[in-house]
Amino acid sequence: MPLNNNQNNAPAVHRAIDIIEFISSSQREVSFSEIVESLDIPRQSLIRILNALCDRGFLDKSGQRGLYRIGLKFLYLGHGLPDKYEFRTVAWKYMKELSQKTLKTIELSSLDRDQLILLEQIRGQEEMSLYSRVGSVIPYLHAVSVGKVYLSLMDEDKRRRVIGKIGLPAVTKYTITDTKRLEDEIRETQKRGYGFEDQELREGVRRVAAPVFNADGKHVGCIGLSATVFSFGLDELDRYGQMVLDAAGKTSAELRQISQHSL
Amino acid sequence: MPLNNNQNNAPAVHRAIDIIEFISSSQREVSFSEIVESLDIPRQSLIRILNALCDRGFLDKSGQRGLYRIGLKFLYLGHGLPDKYEFRTVAWKYMKELSQKTLKTIELSSLDRDQLILLEQIRGQEEMSLYSRVGSVIPYLHAVSVGKVYLSLMDEDKRRRVIGKIGLPAVTKYTITDTKRLEDEIRETQKRGYGFEDQELREGVRRVAAPVFNADGKHVGCIGLSATVFSFGLDELDRYGQMVLDAAGKTSAELRQISQHSL
DNA sequence: ATTTTTAGTACCATATTTGGTATATAATTT
DNA sequence: AAATTATATACCAAATATGGTACTAAAAAT
Predict the structure, then answer these.
(1) Which terminus of chain A has a lower count of CB atoms within 10 Å, N or C?
(2) Which bases of strand D have any atom within 7 Å of the beta carbon of a protein residue?
(3) Distinct helix (H) and strand (E) counts, chain A
(4) Which domains does chain B have, with CATH numbers?
């Protein structure tokens, strides 16, 4: 796997990305030797790549003792995305509405490389650490409302492939780990139009999510609502479900309109 | 400049970054040929690098017609930063306080590679496009409250170097373009402790900003407040100035405390 | 102050990436 | 449906980035 015999490779680029990911995952500033030891890149080559990344602002060693950390360039590049993934800007408006009405945490997610990614988030009243950070990814489609929506809308083949990739691991004791039950759940999701998750990803947290479609009718993301079990009772499920459906529906409608105008 | 004779270079990495910056700056999805024409990288080499960047999620071509755009990986890496640039999390608390008290736009900025960078932002009541996006950089230290604070706290040498780099261009008709006047302004900033800018970067917008210091006494950033001229009268200058000074002061104090505990 | 560890530079032969050309495949236009 | 354009792959000789080794400089640790 690491040794790719194919010459369409750009090894220096892969190494650079390995370095960036290593530093990012270590969640703190790291020293040169830590990188050498962890990454199996020769010293000399490593230095060259580190210098290049620092020169361009992708890494930064102006902090403590010249240790390396992720550069602020990523802040810029990360925040430049909203403009390009167009539906983010449109969805934002309706997410805000939802947030004001419910005071719950509202999230916009999408599927990227077979993983769920959190694109945007408006934090709710409840000050607790149920929030993931924007940009974080979750591979467990079977354990999240958003994931269930995605599964319910993909064709049989893709669904099997995506699930086959990681299986149905139990994230909490409530996670669905049985194929039959998941199939039922997916059918239920198709019927309702929105996805629901009851502490299956994190104990004490419930979520609902509804799909956003672009002008071509392609499913591009989900608007979701999260809350603790204390403030999101099971009797409120349909109320919140309808609310996310409404917000997602409005977003899809606006996306259709926009593309008509631009014809 | 582009041809570096030195062998500590990692050209493939520089090329990869050129590509990423080109795509990011074009503010839309770009085709292969656009990149070839703009960047002077041979086709074959370009493809190799593009493939590497796509494989790793730094670029994405799943959008329209297989055009290239910035990948969602940057979202993740960008949002991972707050944890590492420690003062962001501490400042956030006091920024929120300020935001609730004033309903104005509150911003946290820093200096990175001689440019001001917007690290964090809480949008105010006024729904208008005075907001820059998080991660955006401004080289005009002389035209922004935050920049004036930075200038007022750096030693003579660095100040001259930073200003020498871009001079004193007029961004609006109110921008200070005269060295003498800037020096006066810097002295005034030193006296007051906070920086002020009156439509010098954007017409109709006023800003104040105060410095945050880390436990070692190093100036690491500024907490600022922005508003339109309609909601930020000149008679309110000192009131808002004192408020940002207060928020920044509390942040610095907490940074000192944290480092004491960890001894 | 001295030693030890760590980070980075210089040098250079070799192996590897690189980038021509030709070719294949997909998308778009006529 | 055929022609044209755009994008990507295959191949291979040449050039160049790579990564040994040896050396320097700067921090930590003693």
Answers:
(1) N
(2) 6-12, 16-21, 27-28
(3) 9, 8
(4) 11-75 (1.10.10.10), 85-261 (3.30.450.40)
